[in-house]
Amino acid sequence: MADVKAPQHLDPRDIVKLLVALRRALKKPPA
């Protein structure tokens, strides 16, 4: 994955955001 402007440690909110994004991407049919 591309380098993201973020500290080495992830915030709980960031992790939740990533999980939600992954779920959406998986649920979404490939365009």
The low-confidence runs, each spanning 5 or more residues with pLDDT under 50, are none
Number of strands: 0
| Percent strand | under 5%
Oligomeric state of this protein: single chain
The end-to-end distance, rounded to whole angstroms, is 20 Å
Order of helices and strands: H
Specify the biggest β-sheet.
none
Rg, Å, rounded: 11 Å
Q: Outline, from the CA principal axes?
A: elongated
Query: What's the helix count?
Result: 1
Mean pLDDT: 79
Structural class: mainly alpha
What helical percentage do the residues reach?
Answer: 40-55%
Q: What's a concise summary of this model?
A:
Helices cover 52% and strands 0% of the residues. The chain is mainly alpha-helical.
Strand and helix map with partners:
Layout: H1 12-27
Features of this protein?
elongated; mainly alpha; 1 helix
Please provide a written account of the structure.
With 31 residues, the protein is mostly helical. Helix content is 52%, strand content 0%. It contains 1 helix and no strands. The protein has one helix at 12-27. The longest helix has 16 residues, at 12-27. The radius of gyration is 11 Å and the shape is elongated. The two termini are 20 Å apart. The mean pLDDT is 79.
